Amino acid sequence: MKTRAVVLRGTSTARPYSDTRPVEVEELELGAPREGEVLVRIAAASLCHSDLSVVNGDRVRPLPMALGHEAVGVVQDTGPGVGRVSPGDHVALVFVPSCGFCGDCAAGRPALCAQAAAANGSGALLHGPSLLTDAAGNPVHHQLGVSAFSEHAVLAQESVVPIPKDVPFTVASMFGCAVLTGAGAVINTAALRPGQSTVVYGLGGVGLSAVLGARAAGAYPIIAVDPVQEKRELALRLGATHAYAPDEAARQIRELTSGGAESAVEAVGSPKVMAQCLSAVARGGKVVSVGLPAPDRVLEVPALAFAGEGKSLLGSYMGDAVPRRDIPRFLDLWRAGLMPVEQMHTGTLPLSDINVAMEELASGRAIRQVIDTSGMLSA
């Protein structure tokens, strides 16, 4: 079948994206689902900073690539052996299609699945090579097994999680990446307990989701740090108890927490900010890093912070989530009013405006823009 999709053919750091158009909407051929795969009509796809990291080359991926990894859709068809979903089901898409059998999956850490990492790194699907080809018949790689900036996508059944049909598409689209990663970082990785203090550096979609997770976990105080005033104000509406600009954060955190927070989340992807987080936590405190720096960036911190002060620096990929467990429970928290993710929605754009959306995100003006990939939002 034919599908219109956003394709990246060469990385670009030129700005503004809306003028330089580093990606284009192309008509691709999409193969039918094979064994263990499902065909999904994409209803809404959110734009994440990780997508920009592929465009500018910070995240090295095989090209050409059909982009998009945070989305929701409706199952249209299934291949042989699919038992998790049926046509008509609403599904959230997950960017780590864990195999379920490797050592990490068996240990309850599907985000670290080795088979999924290999498939994602090569631009393939979990059950086989790419199913996308361009007008010349050349293969086009999948982004993280999803490629959601498209009218339709074929995914491994391990990449989809059924969700209730009454959840709005614009809300559900944020749960497969931003919420899993941000809320998961504080609930799963940091194991935040009621009354513990936490600070979140970087208030994009992931950082604000960490604020929401901290609120749901009963943390206090919840301190939000970002240079953009509008993002600090939004963090306060979402549950942060205090919000500071970076230049005043260190002093304010020390005063507010009597020396340092019990945990910190770094959602910027900056070694400098990781070091600031390590300074912001008290003796015995935890720093959870969820930002994705460029591969050549190096972190330099005082070595004594670990054995001497008992601090921990923890990596958290996809929020250490188990998607089939965590997406439903996070949606329950949304339904209860404890995770109002709809307040992060800063605009809906058609597929043709993808470069405009990228520029809005890169400029810091947008939090989570939703791409109406197949017209389902405007129908």
From TrEMBL:
Entry annotated with the keyword NAD: yes
Residue ranges of domain Enoyl reductase (ER) in the record: 18-371
GO terms, biological process: formaldehyde catabolic process
PROSITE patterns associated with the record: ADH_ZINC (PS00059)
GO MF annotation: an example: S-(hydroxymethyl)glutathione dehydrogenase [NAD(P)+] activity
Pfam family, one: ADH_N
Cofactor field: Zn(2+)
Source species, domain of life: Bacteria
Keyword vocabulary terms for this entry: Metal-binding, NAD, Oxidoreductase, Zinc
SUPFAM superfamilies linked: GroES-like (SSF50129), NAD(P)-binding Rossmann-fold domains (SSF51735)
GO-annotated cellular components: cytosol
Entry's family note: Belongs to the zinc-containing alcohol dehydrogenase family.
UniProt protein name: Zn-dependent alcohol dehydrogenase
